[in-house]
Amino acid sequence: MLNFEFQNPTKIIFRRDQISKIAAEIPQGARVMMLYGGGSIKTNGIYEQVSKALAGFEVVEFGGIPANPEYEILLDALQVIKAESIDFMLAVGGGSVIDGVKFLSAAALYDGDEPWNILKNSVRTFKGLPFGTVLTIPATGSEMNSGAVITRKATQEKLSMGGPGLFPVFSILDPQVIASIPKRQLANGITDAFTHVLEQYMTYPTEAFLQDRFAESIMQTLIEIAPRVMNNPGDYEAAANFMWSCTMALNGLIQKGVPTDWAVHAIGHELTALFGIDHARTLSVIAPSHYRFNFEAKKAKLAQYAERVWGLEKDDTDSLANAAIEKTEAFFHSLEIDTKLSAYTDQFEGTAEKIEQRFQERGWLGLGEHKSLSPADVKQIVTMSY
Ligand code: NZQ
Ligand code: ZN
Questions:
Q1: What are 78-95's pLDDT values in tens digits?
Q2: What secondary structure letter does DSSP report for 361?
Q3: Burial class, 240, CB count within 10 angstroms (exposed 0-12 / middle 13-18 / buried 19+)
Q4: Which residue's alpha carbon is nearest to atom 47 within ligand 1?
Q5: 273 FRET partner, CA 20 to 30 A, in 49, 57, 74, 372?
Q6: pTM score, two decimals?
Q7: Burial grade of 23 (CB within 10 A; 0-12, 13-18, 19 or more)
Q8: Which atom of ligand 1 is the closest one to the Cα of 137?
Q9: Tens-place pLDDT, residues 257-308
Q10: Is the CB of 258 under 6 A from ligand 1?
């Protein structure tokens, strides 16, 4: 039933050549910390553009936030924020840098001794240190949502956090940044955004007609632009549609008034924590098994997706639903993404039991749209994905 509240305070500036306009979005006189990743911005011109745009501010830089932002490294940044009395942060990067900055936004104003507890105890952040973003890679939607996922190598954990205080104040979306993204990361971005839509759509039918069509149209757009972006990331029109699809896939809009699943992400995060597999690839490993395991509960929606997104025609729901799962796998394969865990690691034996145990210990006893998937079910899904 459509019944919801929706607020998204992030200002999106979506246009080419907008990086130079950042200064107008940051409070005058702010002490700014500019944070970035492993260095791609130093070779594709984004660093120069941002530095030039920040010329009127006192700026402290913090580079080296790795993919799957690492807690220990973020603690170093937190010290600098406190020592330098930073009052505004600018994340220049993808989901990893933006999520790292969201963690810092929460941690900077957190009262407790151990900021990891924000993640461990699911502490919601209602007020954070303000920050903006310059998005360099479309994928996560982090540029327009209030969630973050942080990794702790020492304990092989990857946990989520969030809260209404963690929306970026603004995000600059210039599709020209996509031109320098390597193929592997383009494929990751398409797969991640596609799966975000699936998590909010592949449940059971409700009378949310517009929500369904929002979701279907994002998936159709991603399918349409995928070969163009993969073959030529400098194709501006394709890149722009790719970028906007990723943002819209996870900015809160399509989940309003409908059931959501998110089991694929919950399980996938464990595969990144255990093996360091790229986030998107863990989703492509888990999603097909998840849909096969929950076939009866999801087949009506799988069949709708087969017809509306893939244009398939078959006599009965079961055939359509099965074909939908196969089409999804084939789509991931078309992006050169493997959909079996054994393609990523030889050490896969025992993974299912490990994840089952972790979920049990954390009290994650009911996943999915019906909150009915037990740790034992999760074990089976992971085993099916070997
Ligand atoms: O670190 P640098 O050198 O900048 O290189 C990055 C990185 O290696 C590179 N890259 C980014 N922009 C580029 C570029 N290379 C060339 N040209 C550019 N313009 O791409 C690599 C991947 O970057 P990353 O930020 O890790 O990618 P992504 O945006 O896919 O973020 C993944 C992270 O976000 C989390 C994931 O778990 C993972 O930690 N997620 C965040 C979500 C959220 N906040 O809502 C939801 C997602 O489901 C996801 O969990
Ligand atoms: Zn994701």
A1: 999 999 999 999 999 999
A2: H
A3: buried
A4: 140
A5: 372
A6: 0.98
A7: middle
A8: 12
A9: 999 999 999 999 999 999 999 999 999 999 999 999 999 999 999 999 999 9
A10: no
